[in-house]
Specification:
Blueprint (H helix, E strand, L loop, with lengths): L1 H28 L1 H18 L1 H8 L3 E4 L15 E5 L12 H7 L3 E6 L6 H14 L5 E7 L1 H11 L5 H6 L5 E8 L12 H15 L6 H4 L4 H5 L5 H8 L8 E7 L5 H14 L4 H19 L6 H4 L6 E5 L19 H13 L5
Parallel strand pairs: 2-3, 2-4, 4-5, 5-6, 6-7
Antiparallel strand pairs: 1-3
Helix pairs in contact: 5-6, 12-13
């Protein structure tokens, strides 16, 4: 009896797995058609409930981050940093970086947006938000995950004409763009973004901010389709040259126990001991371990996906989230990307950190 039940469960799991894989194959074939249908549904519902949608969208935008620490000085800021989150982030990704930047003397603004909508729409909204506020002549952008794609789209899409608007004084000049865990070449795990969307909506429910239209206003999953490797959006974005006069840096996480620096250390130690034929074997092992680590990446984004030609790449230990934030507010751990970003911003200003 137990054997029959176990076989039934195994058969059920196998059937579900086959159906899931089959669904993904079909979705891959018609992914752009699916994206357009999702957008049509969202636009139709927005047209049917214009007032509710307008009210919900008013919650998004560019807002200053105020530190809760009374010891933080309120002197004139060194520079202004704009933080932009990624796909289905419930608002905690900057819990460590934002206070660290404020404490170090930076003015910090946090940009929120309907992150499940098409990335280009988010880029348009980002540019409009920058133009609508009285900002300094120049800003720096720090973006997590998809936020890096939104930023690159805003800076390079020809119809958004970023450079021309800066010359006309309509937009602040972006002095630097730092991308953390950005899937510049896509992520296969974007297929599972539905779980993150549930988490996002649940977070709103706990805050008492949930509305039945929230999942529509936030987008109907178009961004998740655009984040898949080889999408029309990524192909178009990566075919453009990098934005002129905007230095960029990419920070990628590696969650494997075999960190790149560990591999390099092991290689140096073995190099001292190797003789004859061991030379080629150790070289092959080093390449294999490094390749495996880079493919794992931060658990959501592979190192090679984050990489951009001609853009400096820095690797830190951690997952997609743990490299930039802690799980709990009570943790005293310093996420590895935080001091790296603070130091980089200070170096770009050529001033010592506080």
């Amino acid at each position: 009896m137990k054997t029959k039940k176990r076989n039934l469960w195994l058969t059920t799991i196998l059937i579900l797995a086959v159906l899931f894989v089959g669904l993904q194959v079909v979705r891959d074939i018609f992914r752009e058609e699916e994206r357009r249908v999702r957008s049509d549904v969202r636009n139709a519902i927005k047209d049917a409930y214009p007032e509710e949608v307008k009210r919900l969208k008013a919650a998004y935008g560019l807002e200053p981050f105020e530190s809760a620490d009374p010891s933080v000085p309120h002197a004139a800021p060194k520079a202004t940093v704009v933080l932009i989150h990624g796909l289905d982030d419930p608002g905690k990704v900057w819990m460590n970086l934002a206070p660290a930047l404020v404490k170090d003397g930076f003015s910090v603004l946090v940009f929120t947006y309907p992150n499940d909508q098409p990335v280009t729409e988010s880029a348009v909204f980002f540019q409009q938000s920058l133009a609508s506020r009285k900002l300094p002549e120049s800003i720096t952008i720090v973006a997590h995950s998809m936020g890096g794609l939104v930023s690159r789209e805003m800076l390079t899409h020809p119809e958004l004409a970023y450079a021309d608007k800066v010359k006309r004084g309509e937009l602040p000049r972006v002095e630097r763009l730092i991308m953390v865990g950005t899937p510049n070449h896509g992520s296969e795990l974007a297929r599972f973004r539905g779980f993150a969307e549930v988490r996002d909506l649940f977070s709103l429910m706990l805050k008492g901010e949930y509305h039945w239209l929230q999942g529509i206003v936030d987008g109907t999953g178009e961004a998740g389709i655009e984040l898949l490797p080889g999408s029309e959006f990524l192909t178009a974005l990566n075919s453009r040259p990098h934005p002129e006069d905007v230095p960029m840096m990419v920070i990628a996480g590696v969650m494997s126990d075999w960190q790149v620096n560990h591999i390099e250390t092991l290689g140096r130690e073995l190099d001292k001991k190797r003789h004859g034929e061991a030379n080629s074997a150790i070289t092959v092992m080093d390449r294999m371990l490094t390749s495996m680590t880079r493919q794992i990446g931060d658990g959501l984004v592979a190192v090679d996906s984050a990489r951009l030609p001609g853009v400096p790449l820095k690797i830190v230990p951690g997952t997609h989230l743990s490299m930039i934030r802690n799980i709990t507010t009570s943790s005293n751990r310093i996420p590895p990307a935080v001091p790296m970003i603070v130091e980089d911003l200070n170096q770009s200003l050529q001033v010592p950190s506080q």
